[in-house]
Design goal:
With 224 residues, this protein is α+β, with helices and mostly antiparallel strands. The chain is built from 8 helices and 6 strands. The protein has a 4-stranded antiparallel beta sheet with strand order 2-3-6-5. A two-stranded parallel ribbon has the order 1-4. It starts with 6 loop residues before the first strand and ends with a helix.
């Protein structure tokens, strides 16, 4: 993939809030904070850092209103395996939630900086109109190629659709990457999940839909 420009609709499984090259990220103050966090691996539960505290406060502010009270607890983990382990501890009466690590400081600093961009540019507020454009385009494709794809579903910009045949999904995602430089995220045996970052533009949505149409046309022709 070296040297190729990709249209990313996988988004690291929806963990990437904004694009890779946002102009605010090279800011020197952020770069210094990020370097400090990345250069030190701290056991956060036992040695609470300022970066970790700011991260917890941000997560608290993002919680639904019905949960935002003094009883709300934030528990950060570095992997799914740690989450499962620590949820089992109380069930086994091992005495509460804890972790020797408790999430990467660098990830915390990066997330806080990206959330500044999300809030400053009103990216959450812009989701409904972008989602309407995306969903309308996907539903049109499903109507135009009923023998190939169906079941468009999702919430907001996080949409998906399924192929009628398992082999079609494999061929479609392979062609998308090799021919169109489009990175798609598969799910199960028949489904594509779309996970763009929040700063995706209307032009990029239209470009995606055009690429999807070309791929579906190629599949339909091959299946005839």
């Amino acid at each position: 993939m070296a040297g190729r420009r990709l249209l990313d609709w996988a988004g690291y499984y929806a963990s990437k809030l904004i694009g890779h090259n946002h102009p605010s990220l090279p800011d020197p103050r952020y770069a210094r904070r990020f370097a400090l966090a990345a250069n030190n691996k701290v056991g956060n539960p036992d040695f609470l850092t300022l970066e970790c505290l700011e991260y917890y406060e941000l997560l608290h502010s993002l919680a639904p209103l019905c949960m935002r009270n003094e009883a709300l607890e934030v528990y950060a983990l570095d992997s799914g395996a740690e989450a499962v382990e620590n949820m089992l501890k109380p069930m086994e009466d091992i005495g509460g939630l804890d972790s020797a690590w408790g999430r990467s400081l660098a990830d915390m600093v990066r997330f806080m900086e990206e959330m500044k961009v999300v809030r400053g540019e009103g990216l959450i507020e812009a989701v409904p109109s972008k989602a309407d454009r995306l969903v309308a385009g996907l539903e049109t494709l499903a109507r135009d190629f009923p023998g190939v794809i169906h079941n468009v579903r999702g919430m907001g910009l996080y949409q998906g659709f399924s192929f009628r045949r398992e082999d079609d999904k494999k061929a479609f995602t392979r062609r998308a990457l090799q021919v169109e430089n489009l990175l798609l995220l598969g799910a199960g045996t028949h489904t594509i999940r779309l996970r763009p970052n929040l700063e995706v533009t209307s032009e990029e949505i239209d470009l995606l839909l055009a690429i999807l149409r070309r791929g579906l046309e190629a599949l339909a022709a091959a299946n005839d």
